[in-house]
Every structure is written in structure tokens, then in C-alpha cells.
Give the backbone structure.
Amino acid sequence: MEESITIDYLPKLNDPLFIAGFDGWGNALDISRGMVDYMIRKKNAKLFAKIDPDIFYRFDENRPLVDIENGLIKKIYPPGGFFYVTSEGRDIIFMKATEPNLRWFHFVDNMLSICQRTGVKTIIGLGSMYDNVLHTDTIVSALASSEELLAKLREKNVISINYKGPGSIHSTIQYEAKKRGFDCLNLWCHCPYYLQGTTHFGLLSHLGTLLSSLGGFELDTEDLENSWKELSKQIQGVIDNNPELQGMINDLRKAKVKGSWDAINKHEKIIHLEDFLKPR
């Protein structure tokens, strides 16, 4: 593991929860990594380990960001990942990372090794996808390692996932974690495709409340709720002044009532609200 993850120190923890968020394919509206970033800040979590980017990433697909000033390179930021820990309330380990391009099973093996060495019993992965939903919806679906966990999620109005198709790193983590005896679940937020380019503070707040309830820790999301109230007014203003967007959203509402999304297929153009909203 030393070649793949650099550990500054291994924290001594009491029944820690492990929460992972990824950038990349499963990070619509930056809900997945954004939620972990938010909790790291709110919980004053401290960095204790980082992933070696050369092992798991193709730089021609996830290119490093560079900071150049007056012809001089100041800094290079390669893709990768970091582990943080907090003991404010319940002990929690957070991992935020770019979804790896290479060696997924080796990546997961290293991640689970840290979980085992720190006493983690429960792993929660966060994902988000674009879907035919409204910006007023707060829909979360999930998969879990046991029927007991799924039953708890259904009590909180979380939908069980039925899916066949290309997978994300979340599924590989779930598959391998279950074999090693971890309780594991993945939460997926369903994001309105027409809201691309904005931050859905409402979904972030809803997900944060769900996580705190499932994980047994406190998380104050009042700032997210206030930001969503402000952004919702801007969104409604854009909708009120854009007939094409009104038509698309009305079709979505009708399809939601009927339980079918066929009505929205006639829209060949997707309207991106970042073209209208004030920069945030």
C-alpha cells in the first residue's frame, strides 16, 4: 500500500464511519465530491493520507491543472485523492478523489485496507446523476450490502436501484467491501439535467441531512438551505421569462404525474441555466 497511498499518520478511532465522494462520471452538479468537501469544512477534518496519482490515473484523460504566472510554472495539481479524519462528534473518515482511470481493484483494495486498519465497519459512497427530474425534487436512490440496510433506507424515502449498464467506481467498492464483511451503501442523487452549471444547494442540504441521520452525527446545513432559497428565486425568474424552458418543465411535470418520461423526448435542445444565472 505504501506505493499507492502515502499515510502521514494512522488515526486511532472509535467505530469510525467512512464516507467517499468522487469527481468524474458519477458527480453530476458536483454533488458527490461537493458534499464531502462541505463536510470536511464543517467538521474541521484533517488530512492524513493521499493517493499517488501516477498509480491510478491517466494524465491524458485527467490532465493536471497548472498555475503559470509570467511564463513561470508556480504549481501543478495532478488528479488524485485525499483522506481526512474528524472526531467532532462521531469519528468519520472522508475520502475525496477523482474517479480512477486504472487498476480499480487495486485502488479499492488499498482503500479498504485503510478502513480495516482504522476500524471502519460502515462505508458510504456518494454519487449523483443527471435525470429527468425537476429542480424542486429531492430524489435519492441507493444500493446496499444487505436487505436490512435497504429497509432502513426505504424508511427514509430512498429508492432501491434497478440498473444494468456501465458501472462506476462506487459499484466496485460496494462489491469488494461486501466480500470483506463491511456494511456498505451507495447514495445517488438525481439531478435535473437542465440545471447544469449551477450548484444544487437544495440537494446538498437534503443529502447532508440524510447522511447525518444514517450516520448518527450532527450536520448543520442551514447555510445550504438559505443559499437554495436564494438560487430558487433566480431559477424561477429564468423559467418565467423563457417560454421554451417553461414548456420543457411543464412536460416534465406531466410526465412525473403519469409516471412516464416519453413526453420529454421531443426536446432536442437542452437549456443550460448557467447561461442565464448570475455567476456564484
